[in-house]
Amino acid sequence: MGRWNATCGVSLHAEILGRELVKLGHKIILFSPTLTSANKDWHHRHVDIDDEAWVHRVYEETDEYTYPFGGVVDTEAILNEDYDIFVVEAYNRFPINEFRKISAEVRKKAPIVMVLHLGFIRDFEPLADLRWDAITVFDERFINEVLKPFGEAVVSKATIIPYPYAVIEGVIAERPPFAEGKLLFITYGRQPPEEYIDYVRALRKLQSKYDIVYWIIRSDGELPFKDEWIHQSLMRPDIMHLHKYVKGADIHLLPKGETGGVVVSSTLNQILYAGIPTVVPDTRYFEYIPVNELGFGAVVKYRQGDTIDLNKKLIALIERKELRDEVSREARALALKNSDEIIAKKYLELFTKLLA
To answer: What integer is the mean pLDDT of 78-99?
Structure first.
């Protein structure tokens, strides 16, 4: 139960896990929000594909200000289906108080597992007293910073299962005609305009030395930058096309601002296996990704707001092929360590224990 086929990390987690479970021979049912309600959230836009036959849009989301109240759940649609395990992708627009009304009935049919996407105590608190059979978290930070204040009864339900990386083989790189003969930087997503400033200002200095183009793919709304070497495209490609576009680029620039909550970057998990060097700011979105003392590893980290540091690292990537190759190897190795198949099997192990 959660988002599906949308430009958001909650949806991507369900998609990667769900589709891998199908590949492994299992059946799934998706209880998803109506697009009208979910699209009120700026994080959520339906991607340019049709929902699968087993996706049922049966609830309306609430919003961050009304949560945990508000929203609507078609209880009959949920209770009339058969399932062995019921997985809830918990996020701060999920209509938890409406789901609470049927949770006991759902538990009579199947164990309930929560996937925790909440990075603040305030957002988890409305869910803490619900009777969960298991809570999965992406890393130790979620236990220490979100769950521990609620005591051992809650912490004991927690299992660490990392956010899966999408491992897509056989992708043929696709490079746009406007980048022919140029050094191609790429960014995709719909981050706020201010989160692109570091990259644009760094590239403004580099474009006098190198023949560059910066391809920005936005799901909606162009950015205000008008530099002639910036090319913007408004589209919401599926994950296969994203891998084609990123593999066709030279360097991937990933903007993510700072936050006080515990977070992961679904954008990184979506694309890391493409193997193109990804540059990121040193925000909480990437603090769990190991790098060396210079900021190089499976990603390249720079000090947020420090365009001098960013420029030095971009120049190093441009001029040192062996460095690009090393970052690429480490990126693909990390993605394989927590691949979609490996993570799906970890969930299956948890499900098997719950059903024993």
So the answer is: 96
